[in-house]
Design brief:
By secondary structure, this protein is an alpha+beta fold. Strand 4, helix 7 and strand 5 form a beta-alpha-beta unit.
């Protein structure tokens, strides 16, 4: 029999991953019955087309479990696109993953505790800062380990969601470290070559430091309109210093005073290019006050 983690690694998309997490939280009786092994693959018969293990359900192409997961996943596609996955290896499972009653945190869309000190969670990406704050508030003094944070993938991507989980579990250390750190991937494909991101200082942070970066992204998103954010990005990418100086004055002239003060106080023109790249990546995870 396959365990929960085996089923999670068979997910093709983020929607299937979320559907599987929710299924095991409250499994429906119709799909929770014992599954029988499928027939050997042949021209006329074979096992379930998705898991390639259990028997098909009547004339359908899938077993009862896979059919239930795919049915749920169709309704979760949009939700998965704005969600984020956290794979954690810690010295103790935070209460914000599993409460004392065994239920998931209200901030989470789904969670699974794996082998005692590892866990997988999914949440809306703009809830990430709030969830991390709660973890630090309740466990900041004693929790140690690594959180790998990455987005979901689509159904027809070159990399399946299950493969992403395998890479995340492969790169995680065998034992929790003596610090509480986070590794942030703006794209799931970056898990294939994490050293390239690490080389530019965009991968590993202390969790408290990563929270500060998320807070900066929230302030940035709140003070600048999307069009102004794009104009600023184009301006900061200029290689000609004289050209940048010319357009910088014109750009500041169209901003309100709060936005001007923010950019001047941050000295954003002196930031290295990787730090600017990280700020714009984190905008997707920044919630606007009283709106998101």
């Amino acid at each position: 029999m396959l365990n929960i983690f085996d089923w999670l690694r068979r997910c093709e998309s983020g929607a299937e991953l979320l559907a599987t997490l929710r299924y095991f939280a409250k499994p429906p009786k119709s799909a929770a019955a014992e599954l029988a092994m499928g027939a050997p693959l042949s021209a006329l018969a074979g096992p379930c087309r998705r898991c390639l293990l259990y028997e098909r359900n009547g004339q359908e192409e899938y077993c009862r479990f896979c059919a239930a997961i795919l049915d749920r996943a169709r309704r979760l596609t949009r939700t998965s696109r704005i969600s984020v996955v956290v794979w954690g290896l810690v010295n103790q499972i935070p209460q914000q993953v599993r409460g004392m009653d065994g239920s998931s945190s209200p901030l989470l869309m789904g969670s699974h505790v794996h082998e005692g000190n590892q866990f997988l969670t999914m949440m809306y990406r703009r809830k990430l800062k709030t969830w991390l704050q709660d973890v630090l508030l309740y466990h900041g003094a004693e929790i140690r380990g690594l959180l790998q944070i990455f987005p979901t993938v689509g159904l027809r991507g070159r990399l399946s969601m299950g493969e992403v989980l395998c890479y995340a579990s492969h790169y995680a250390p065998r034992q929790p470290a003596d610090r509480f750190t986070a590794q942030f991937y703006s794209s799931s494909f970056q898990l294939l070559k994490p050293r390239m991101r690490d080389r530019h200082g965009l991968l590993t942070f202390e969790v408290a430091e990563f929270l500060s970066l998320l807070e900066m992204a929230e302030v940035f998103r709140a003070r600048l309109y999307p069009a102004e954010q794009r104009q600023l990005h184009e301006l900061l990418e200029l290689d000609d210093a004289k050209e940048e100086q010319f357009y910088w004055g014109r750009f500041l002239g169209q901003l309100n005073q709060e936005a001007k003060d923010m950019l001047v106080a941050w000295r954003i023109r002196q930031w290295p290019k990787p730090r600017i790249k990280l700020l714009y990546e984190l905008i997707e995870y920044a919630a606007l006050p009283n709106t998101d």
